[in-house]
Write a structure and sequence with these properties.
The protein is α/β, with parallel strands linked by helices. Helices cover 42% and strands 23% of the residues.
């Protein structure tokens, strides 16, 4: 039996369409016609020998085979892009200074920075993990080249919005308490000032619910330890949650709804060096599809 050689351009159209939720949007993103993308998908299904998509209402959904193909397609494209970057940037030297929230330390540091380092072995990457305000101050002072941070009222230049995330009440897998007006809500929070600490307190005050600070910490690791120990509940987005903690259903717990929070990538310069821009692209790709 002859080997199947999947076309990476076809794979990219397939992945882009799934991630955007529309193959018409994928066609626009990839500067192709809708008919061309449709032809690519037909070709991919013919090569796979099985349907990858099925009708779901007015749109399309993945079949079981399509879910398998999506995982492999992403891996193939990541390897392709990494190889292209490595060949083009093998002689890049110097350093890139990156700032991150603790929320993204594990996923970004291990996955994105690992790929980046393999592609650019002569580059030195310096990583600074800090709170949002410190990251923005460091970027403004020129101590960072790029920072992944929450969007605030601060009008920072060279910001690229990545996605909007819901703030959620966070508890343990084993304990999902509910609260009423007679029971102060025990909060596990970071030291002030903190965007999510403020959001939690304001939401509880508007709802007329009593609250108390049960535990404060200078680090997110301390916060998670306290939540796991059952000392109280916290507020965070769904991204980067460790094991044994989970988002809570606000209505079931008699807790108020929380606002959303934007996530952005901030560059120190409008036109950064090629190495900085490549790292920024990898971070945006990784965080955009994180769940």
């Amino acid at each position: 039996m002859s080997r199947i050689h999947f076309d990476l351009d076809v794979m990219r159209s397939f992945v882009t369409g799934i991630e955007l939720g529309s193959f018409a949007k994928a066609a626009d993103r990839l500067s192709r016609s809708t008919s061309a993308v449709s032809a690519q998908l037909k070709k991919l299904e013919e090569q796979a020998g099985t349907p990858l998509l099925r009708k779901a209402g007015r749109g399309m959904a993945l079949t079981e085979a399509g879910e398998v193909m999506l995982g492999y397609a992403r891996r193939l494209l990541e390897l392709n892009d990494e190889a292209a970057s490595a060949v083009r940037g093998v002689e890049l030297e110097g350093r890139v200074r990156l700032g991150l929230q603790e929320d993204f330390g594990e996923s970004v540091l291990t996955e994105v920075l690992g790929r980046f380092k393999r592609a650019h072995p002569k580059l030195r990457v310096e990583v600074h993990i800090a709170r949002n305000a410190v990251l923005m101050q460091s970027l403004d002072a020129g101590r960072l080249d790029v920072a992944l941070a929450w969007e605030t009222d601060m009008r920072a230049a060279h910001a690229q919005h990545i996605r909007t995330l819901p703030m959620c009440w966070i508890g343990t897998d084993a304990l999902q308490p509910s609260y009423d007006i007679d029971e102060p809500v025990p909060l596990v929070v970071l030291d002030a000032p903190c965007l999510m600490r403020t959001a939690a307190i304001e939401a509880l005050d508007r709802a007329g619910l009593a609250w108390r600070i049960a535990f404060t910490s200078a680090s997110l690791a301390g916060t998670w330890a306290a939540v796991k120990a059952g000392l109280g509940i916290s507020v965070r987005t769904p991204l980067g949650l460790p094991g044994e903690v989970c988002t809570m259903d606000a209505a079931e717990a008699n807790l108020p709804a929380l606002p959303t929070l934007g996530l952005a990538l901030y560059r120190r310069e409008a036109e950064p060096e090629p190495a900085v821009e490549r790292l920024a692209e990898l971070i945006v790709q990784r965080v955009s599809k994180a769940s």
